[in-house]
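User: I'll paste a sequence; please echo it back and then give the predicted structure.

Assistant: Echoing your sequence first, then the prediction.
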Amino acid sequence: MFLFRSGGDRVTVDEARRRTQGTDASAVLLDVREQGEWDTGHAPGALHAPLSRLAAGASLPAGAQGRPVVVICRSGNRSQRAAKLLAARGAEAVDVKGGMQMWAAAGHPVVDKRGNDGSIA
């Protein structure tokens, strides 16, 4: 049974956090921003796969394969494209409305590549 329709739905940052954080997480948070953006700040526990690589045919990170994926970017534009691309490949994927900007604005944690407090580039 699917947690959400593949590639069609969008979720709020609160719903994304609920589905992807903690020990009972039902999905993986996948950040599709470029390396520099990721390094500056991302959600703790998220996996990284830039949209540019996915569009070029790269596979999902091992931790995301076979699992529902909640896709996030800076504002929600790239994540929409990535969710559609992944759904076309058979993944169960949705994107996050407002992206990491909304994530941070909602007070959810953001860490940099060293695990310190991060920011959204």
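The CA atoms of residues 13 and 102 lie 7 Å apart. The domain at 10-105 is CATH 3.40.250.10 (Oxidized Rhodanese; domain 1).
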